From TrEMBL:
All residue ranges annotated as the YlxR domain in the record: 10-83
Annotated InterPro entries: YlxR, YlxR-like_sf, YlxR_dom
NCBIfam families: RNA_bind_RnpM (NF047356)
Name of this protein: RNA-binding protein YlxR (DUF448 family)
Coiled-coil spans in chain: none
Top-rank taxon, per record: Bacteria
Gene3D superfamilies, per the entry: YlxR-like (3.30.1230.10)
Length: 91
C-alpha cells in the first residue's frame, strides 16, 4: 500500500481559504522590519501567506491586511511586486 504524503495547508490572509502551501506566496517580515516576498518559504521572520491570485492581492491591498498581519507599514511597491510575481507564475 502506498502511503499518502501529507500536504501542508496554509490559510490565505486575504480570503481565508485553506490551500496547499505550494499554491501560496509567503510574505515575510524580518527582525529589522524589512518586508519581502519569500518564494522559498524558508526565510526566518514573521510570515503571512496569500493566494497566488490577483483578486486576493488586490483585496489585501485595499483592506491593508498584510500591514495588520505583519504589524508593519506595507509600501504599495510590495503589492506591485506580488502582482508581477503572480503573473510570472501563471504563464
Amino acid at each position: 500500500m502506498a502511503v499518502q504524503k501529507k500536504i501542508p495547508l496554509r490559510k490565505c490572509v486575504a480570503t481565508g481559504e485553506m490551500k496547499p502551501k505550494k499554491e501560496m506566496i509567503r510574505i515575510v517580515r524580518s527582525k529589522e522590519g524589512v518586508v519581502s516576498i519569500d518564494p522559498t518559504g524558508k526565510k526566518s521572520g514573521r510570515g503571512a501567506y496569500i493566494s497566488k491570485d490577483q483578486e486576493a492581492i488586490l483585496l489585501a491591498k485595499k483592506k491593508e491586511i498584510l500591514s495588520k498581519q505583519l504589524n508593519v507599514e506595507i509600501d504599495d511597491t510590495l503589492y506591485d511586486e506580488l502582482l508581477q510575481f503572480v503573473e510570472k507564475e501563471n504563464k
